[in-house]
Design a protein that fits this description.
6-stranded mixed β-sheet; Rossmann fold; about 40% helix; binds magnesium ion; 12 strands; alpha/beta; binds adenosine-5'-diphosphate; single chain; about 250 residues
Length: about 250
C-alpha cells in the first residue's frame, strides 16, 4: 500500500516559489489500478515525481507498506519497488535498448526482454540493438521506457501519459498489457491519462486539479463530473459561435 499524507510540493518558478501540490492525501492499495486524470497543469506529473522522489516534499509523508520513505532518494525508492515512466522520457545516447532492458530487469539478457518489447507493440529483432538516441521517434522511446518498467518487479508502477505519441495499433496492445499486468500481479498501477480506454481500466479514478485531489471514485462516479466540466467549456464556445453566425 502506498500512502500519501498531507503532501505539499513547492517548485521554483520564474517569479519565485510556487506551491504546486497542496495537502494531498491518498491511500493506494496493492493490486489496484488507478487512473490519475485532470486538466493540464493540475499537478499529476508533479505528484508522480514527488512519489518517485524527483521533487522534494515541502511537508507531508510518503509511506510504502507502512514505512516512511519521505527522506529516501530516487535510487532508494527505486530499490524499494517504485517505478516512474516519464511523460517525456529521456534518451540515452550510447545505450542500446537491449542493455536498458538488461539493467531494468537486473538479469543478463534473456528472451524475456523480447517479451517486454512485444508487450508494447515493438518487434524485438528491430530494436534490441538500437541505441536509445534521437534516431528513435517519440512514440518508440515512450514504448521502450514502458517496457523497461514492465521488466522490473515493482510494488508501485507509475506510467505518465503512456498513450502520448503512440499509434492506434500499439495503443490497443498497450491496453491489453496494462490489463494483463493488473490481473496477474499485486503491483499498484497508476496511469496518468485522459484517454477513455485507459480510464475504463481503472478500479478508481483520481481527479487532480489546481494541485489538489478534487474527486476519487469509480468511473460511474467520476465520469459525469469530467463530462460536466468539458461540456461546460464547450457550451460557452458553441454559444459564442452561434451568436457570431447569427
Ligand atoms: P500535469 O501533469 O497535471 O499537466 P504538472 O504536474 O506537470 O501538471 O504541472 C503542474 C504545475 O506545476 C504547472 O503549472 C507547471 O507549470 C508547474 N511546474 C511543473 N514543473 C515545474 C518546475 N520544474 N518548476 C516550476 N513549475 C513547474
Ligand atoms: Mg503531466
Amino acid at each position: 500500500m502506498l500512502e500519501i499524507k498531507g503532501l505539499r510540493v513547492s517548485l521554483e518558478g520564474k517569479n519565485g516559489t510556487v506551491e504546486i501540490l497542496r495537502d494531498i492525501n491518498l491511500k493506494l492499495e496493492d493490486h489496484k489500478l488507478y487512473v490519475l486524470t485532470g486538466p493540464n497543469g493540475g499537478g499529476k506529473s508533479t505528484l508522480a515525481k514527488a512519489i518517485m522522489g524527483i521533487y522534494p516534499a515541502a511537508s507531508g509523508e510518503v509511506l510504502l507498506n507502512g514505512r516512511d520513505i519521505s527522506s529516501h532518494s530516487i535510487t532508494e525508492r527505486a530499490l524499494a519497488g517504485i517505478g516512474y515512466a516519464f511523460q517525456q522520457p529521456p534518451r540515452f545516447k550510447g545505450l542500446t535498448v537491449g542493455k536498458m532492458l538488461e539493467i531494468a530487469s537486473g538479469k543478463d539478457r534473456t528472451c524475456n526482454d523480447c517479451n517486454f518489447l512485444y508487450k508494447v507493440g515493438l518487434c524485438p529483432q528491430d530494436y534490441i540493438a538500437r541505441e536509445v538516441d534521437t534516431s528513435l521517434s517519440g512514440g518508440e522511446v515512450k514504448r521502450i521506457e514502458i517496457a523497461t518498467l514492465l521488466a522490473r518487479d515493482l510494488k508501485v508502477a507509475i506510467y505518465d501519459e503512456p498513450e502520448a505519441g503512440i499509434d492506434l495499433w500499439s495503443f490497443s496492445r498497450l491496453i491489453e498489457t496494462f490489463n494483463d499486468l493488473h490481473e496477474q500481479y499485486d503491483t499498484t498501477i497508476i496511469l496518468i491519462s485522459h484517454q477513455e480506454r485507459i480510464i475504463n481500466l481503472a478500479d478508481e479514478i483520481i481527479l487532480v486539479a489546481d494541485g489538489v485531489i478534487k474527486h476519487k471514485g469509480t468511473k460511474d462516479e467520476i465520469w459525469p463530473l469530467i463530462m460536466q466540466d468539458s461540456a461546460c467549456s464547450c457550451r460557452t464556445g458553441c454559444d459564442e459561435r452561434v451568436v457570431e453566425n447569427a
